[in-house]
Amino acid sequence: MAALSAWFWNERFWLPHNVTWADLADPAPGVEYPKAGHLFSALPLALGIFAVRILFERFIAGPCASFLQIQTELSRRAQPNAVLEKVFTSITKSPDSRHLEGLSKQLDWDVRKVQRWFRHRRNQDKPSTRTKFCESMWRFTFYLYIFTYGIHFLWQSPWMWDTRQCWYNYPYQVLTSGLYYYYVTELSFYWSLMFSQFTDIKRKDFLIMFIHHLATISLISFSYVNNMLRVGSLVMCVHDSSDFLLEAAKLANYAKYQRLCDFLFVVFGILFFWTRLIIYPFWILNTTLFESWDIIGPYPSWWLFNILLLVLQVLHIIWSYLIARIAFKAIMRGKNWFVFSFSHWLEGCSCLSASVLIELFRSFR
Predict the structure, then answer these.
(1) What percent of the chain has pLDDT over 70?
(2) Which pLDDT score is estimated for 334?
């Protein structure tokens, strides 16, 4: 076990040249550097956030839904049938014509009756608009809060105005209480999403969302351990800047305020393009790739960190292209581009990575 730990925490990988863990272990009085052990505090906080969410949805989001007259729809339930239920749960939820004919003969039912059973059974599992509203209202509240905190904190931080400050005296950069709180709160929220994913609205992209949350947790933890908190805080703030607008658009859609929904999504789209295609590459990648090279030089974990950020930028480009393509097709067909784009996608997901595209195209139905 000791050998595995020594291999994982190899100083030649994690730290710049001529820096050791011992150099960071005994800072001056009143000075603290990030330590891997700090990350364990995110787990109990994540459980606390999960508990707050349950109370929020019940005592705040629920009454808001009632005020907006968003009620739980009563869908028609499929009549009990052991054969069809087994097919539905084990084989397919949408049988093709061959399966339908086989089931029709087996049950001595009309094909259309079998189709109708599967349609009712699928609708039976769909979450109500009220449930989706409460979930989105929680996410909107958290995203708005964490973005407001992040922009307020960074506004007073020198590295927001001069990104070279992210690398001066690295890795001997002091961990302030504000930076610690920002990081641990973000990390705890994504841990809470890992927990709640098993009780949330079940979606087809469950595995993708699980991988997304895991990747986000890994990237936040990675940047914390090697004290890249300053540039990491910039990355988090840039990605948080549009999430609350997407959730706000969902809320407007569930409440049937279509014009407000359209407006919020347009603002979201503009901000998404601006932050992902302009600010992220020309501000953040510029400092992680070039300014850091000039000031501290490359080392193994530096390469890994930048490769992950570059992969994220590639995804930004793909998402933006697909969004623009759908919008262009909708405009060419002379329809309301927001309604048109989203009426053709299934119920969606929730934030910061590969799920954004699925989230964008599926969440408004």
Answers:
(1) 85
(2) 56
Q: How far apart are CA 65 and CA 144, in angstroms?
A: 19
CA-only gyration radius of the chain, Å: 24
Alpha carbon separation from 261 to 32, 128, 142, 266, 345 (Å, rounded) = 46, 19, 19, 9, 16
Written in H, E and C, the secondary structure of the chain is CHHHHHHHCCHHHHCCCCCCHHHHHCCCCCCCCCCHHHHHHHHHHHHHHHHHHHHHHHHHHHHHHHHCCCCCCCCCCCCCCHHHHHHHHHCCCCCCHHHHHHHHHHHCCCHHHHHHHHHHHHHHHCCCHHHHHHHHHHHHHHHHHHHHHHHHHHHCCHHHHCHHHHCCCCCCCCCCHHHHHHHHHHHHHHHHHHHHCCCCCCCCCHHHHHHHHHHHHHHHHHHHHCCCHHHHHHHHHHHHCCHHHHHHHHHHHHCCCHHHHHHHHHHHHHHHHHHHHHHHHHHHHHHHHHHHHHHCCCCHHHHHHHHHHHHHHHHHHHHHHHHHHHHHHHHHCCCCHHHHHHHCCCCCCCCCCCHHHHHHHHCCC
Give helix 97-107 / helix 111-125 axis angle, nearest 10°.
110
Model confidence at 352: pLDDT above 50: no
Confidence tier at 208 by pLDDT (50, 70, 90): low
Separation between Cα atoms, residue 60 and residue 355, nearest integer Å:
27
Query: The whole model's pTM is what?
Result: 0.82
End-to-end CA distance of the chain: 50
Residue 183's CB is within 10 A of a number of other CB atoms, namely 23
pLDDT for 203: 63
| Helix, strand, coil tally for the chain in percent (to 5) | 75, 0, 25
